[in-house]
Amino acid sequence: MRTNTQRIFERMSKGAFLSVDSTDLEVKHLYDDIEENFADYEDYFSELGLRLEAGDGYFYFSRVQEGKLTIEQKLLSFARWVDILDFLKTYDITFSTGFQFRSTHILERINLDVELRDKARKLFRKQNTNKDIVDKLISELTGMGFAEIINEEDGTYKVTAAIRYAEELVNLITIYNEEDTPEP
Question: Which terminal residue of the chain has fewer beta carbons within 10 Å of its beta carbon, N or C?
């Protein structure tokens, strides 16, 4: 266990996830080690103020004490992932665990689909070109561990089980009609 502790910390303390279906051998090895020694890792990281969390096919850290994040910052981050998932589901409704895509296909769709282009530009206002937008999107997805490259020659990526985290967050949203809104 201890030989992997530093590598797990380095990856997950930056907000990345470890997924069961990763094709990256190191990530897969770290995932398997956590799965086999979950209680030990949970105890160890709790001493550092980190809560080791297990989802459906993924692991991540959450903070035991929140620190300086305000509710507003959390909501902004949450809203961003809602918008990213909305964009991805507009790109392809089946975009989820196991889905494979190429950056060039997303770029082609943005160039052809006005709705997708508008959503992309709202997401990444600081990017100047559609290619910059796609590069930034993929950078965010891979940085979090939600996707990983599986073929560098043709730029094919695979969506990992960690995307379920964002999907589960979005599924927590309940929209009430005025008729359904409880009385104060």
Answer: C
